[in-house]
Amino acid sequence: MGSHTLFTALIVAALGLSQLDSCLAIQCYNCTSTDNGENCLKNPASFSTVDCTTDCFTSAEPGNITRGCLSGDANCSGFNCNSCNSDKCNTNLVCQQCLGLAECGSSNVTDSKYNVVCGSTDQFCVNQVNENQTVTRQCGSACATDAKPDTCSSCNTALCNEGMYPTTRLQCYSCTGETCNTPAITSLTACELVSAQCYMTGTSATAMQRGCTSDAGAKCQVGSTDTSCVICNTTSCNNLAYERDAGTCIECTNCAAEQNTTIAKSCGKLTYNQEDLGCYTLNNGTVTRGCLTAEQGACTTENSCKKCSEANCNVAAEAVEFQCAMCNTLTDAKCQAGVDAPLTACTSNNCFYGYWNGAGIRGCFDQASELMQYQCVNEKSHECVQCTTSLCNKVPFSGADTLKKLSVGLLVGLVLALRYTLN
Q1: How far is CA 319 from CA 251, 282, 391, in A?
Q2: pLDDT tens digits, residue range 396-417?
Q3: How far apart are CA 82 and CA 97, in angstroms?
Q4: Backbone φ, ψ for residue 373 (5° rounding)
Q5: How far is CA 280 from CA 149, 316, 343, in A?
Q6: Is the CB of residue 351 less than 8 Å from the CB of residue 365?
Q7: Cα torsion at 146, 151, 156, 160 (round to 10°)?
Q8: 3-state SS of the chain?
């Protein structure tokens, strides 16, 4: 008989079998999440231990975490179970595991079917973006200290790697057909690939399609030149109905005073692939307000135009600089019609226009010579007209043929006398 066997026999004889089992037993935590709640998952050390003559174990089954003594004929292997044989060793971390599948980056990865028991050497739950833009979740080691949080994330509490990853991943509405014109919040889905964007396309209110550009069979791809495809890159941005109201704006002419929103007018309808341009206020001596359209061209400070995007936003009062058209028909072809004639600011609110020696003249009344002012006021000659609203002297001249009668020398002398510079 060997010395170890003899020793064991002597102990059995001296202590009895039950006392021997007690001496050889290890302490294991004993709980189930079904009976004991989240503490069994997240804080097993808060439970009392039991004596086990076999190994300790931790197992993860759908909907339940179990810790305790491993029965003699049980098989504890694979991702769902881990055994150990030292006191209080069954505190294994539980993480989510999803290896590069389409759903691995989704916010829906909270299902207990993804739960796995980590080995004793795995102290972290890890999420990582793969080279093909899919996501892997698993037990492992901490991410490198210089890793960006949207490419690798690690944590050391139970199931801390569940939920959407990375958090910057887009969520897009995904639907098609008759119910897709107004997408339900339940159709908001995280895109499979980190690089994906949202899209929407359609031909009518009953034939819309929405989704991620990474979807199998996606109608639109990033960089598409198809004008029916709208690509956007913020969460839930692909939510526009096929047709929508274009909003309301103040529409008026010569209306510098603050406007009342009750007079706002509809800007019509827009389809999902048309941009809502908003409202404008144009102040070029006369204030005009309305709905911006693509046909109008740019609205910028360079052309004295202001735009805004909220409903009825173009209501503010405008300070109008008093202006008059200032030109002569000899040197400026636009002066005859007046509409596009050059403008100038006037210190007095008084414009004039008329004919002198066959040439049409426009300008600020206070800048005309004393003779011209006298003729305009007292003689009522030269078809001279005074007016006192900004840009009021842009009325077209009627006598185009009178230009032929003009003596160039007389006109130059007249204009110099009137302190007008011929351009």
Answers
A1: 18, 12, 15
A2: 997 544 444 344 334 444 444 4
A3: 15
A4: -60, -45
A5: 43, 11, 22
A6: yes
A7: 150
A8: CCHHHHHHHHHHHHHCHHHHHHHHCEEEECEEHHHHCCHHHHCHHHCCEEEECCCEEEEEECCEEEEEECCCCCCCCCCCEEEECCCCCCCCCEEECEECCHHHHCCCCCCHHHEEECCCCCCEEEEEECCCCCEEEEEECCCCCCCCCCCEEEECCCCCCCCCCCCCCCEEECEEEHHHCCCCHHHEEECCCCCCCEEEEECCCCCEEEEECCCCCCCCCCCCCCCCCEEECCCCCCCCCCEEECCEECCEECCCCCCCHHHCEECCEEECCCCCCCEEEEECCCEEEEECCHHHCCCCHHHCEEEECCCCCCCCCCCCCCEEECEECCCCHHHCCCCCCCEEECCCCCEEEEEECCEEEEEEHHHCCHHHHHHHHHHCCCCCEEECCCCCCCCCCCCHHHHHHCCHHHHHHHHHHCCCCCC
Amino acid at 267: C
| pLDDT cut 90: percent of the chain above it | 63
What is the rounded average pLDDT for all residues in the chain?
A: 86
Instruction: Assess contact for 160 and 125: CB atoms under 8 A.
Output: yes
Q: Measured between alpha carbons, how far is residue 199 from residues 27, 87, 101 in Å?
A: 57, 56, 22
Residue 94 C-alpha from the chain's centroid: 36
Stated pTM of the model: 0.60
Which amino acid is residue 79, in one-letter code?
A: F
* Residue linked to tokens 């207990």: 112
